[in-house]
Amino acid sequence: MDKREHWFNEGAPLFRQALEQLGLADRLPSADAYYACPCCLIAYPLEAIVEQVLTIEHVPPDALGGKGMLLTCKRCNNDAGRHFDAHAIKRAAVHNFLLGRRTNRPVRAEFLADGIPVRGEVQSSGAGWLMQGVPRQNDPAVADAHERALRAASERGDAPQFTFTITERFSPEQADVSWIRSAYLAAFAALGWRYILRPALDPIRRLLKSDSPTEMPLIIGFNAETDSSARAVMIVEEPENLRSVQVMIGHYSVFLPDPWGTSTLEELAESLAGSRDAEGKVTYTLSGLTAPWPTKPLYLLDKAITQHGTP
Ligand SMILES: [Zn+2]
After folding, report:
1. Chain-centroid distance, C-alpha 217
2. Closest to 236 (Cα-Cα) out of 217, 204, 212, 260
3. Average pLDDT over residues 154-176
4. Whether pTM exceeds 0.85
């Protein structure tokens, strides 16, 4: 069986059961199987698999080292790619370039030879740089003058005065939303419907629909020292003011509301702000339960409730 169909068939009864437990069963039209996209919560029948409306989503995005983890609807997947992931991918390339690490895509830059500018791209292999002018972005006369300045300097036997500036543009807020979205999807894949259907998660879904995420609570942290392949989902129990689901994906950690419905995004953002030092660095010691990193939907909370009744 196709992996998507398998994920649909496994998730659909758990979705219905979660709605029943929340008293929302009448939201589904009939006894047929439905699977909701975890981002927009639109419920789809099995035909959506055949028609490629529900597709496999990579968490984090493919270009940031992600793997196929769960089903989302194509529209949410495409919108996120355009609005958020493109910014996260550009930011990662700039960071990696500046840290001398390998960049998996070119970074826009402007080169100056004896003060004459050429627009182009730089890439880093981790061991060296490759710089390249992009002809269609330059006035040919200026590009020729730049070439001549470089040639003249090499004929004279001295180095031209050569500098470059990174000109790649991205929105840090939109890049952050990309990581928050990945964290939300990983938390869903690990814990399931009962977790994301809590009202405390509504603000995340609103954020994913917004075009200007400027009023986002600060629930994301960055740690340059973490390995970019590190992954973890933790249900944080201590300290009490950080009770949450913490999702770590490489350098980024996102704090989402806890599964018991005691914390909100605003409260978490406030607790995190309270533990920042003068340089803005957050230091904390967390303890709680570690969930396995999902490589497919696990629905741990939904399944625990099925086995043991309502907690
Ligand atoms: Zn959707």
Report:
1. 16
2. 260
3. 87
4. yes
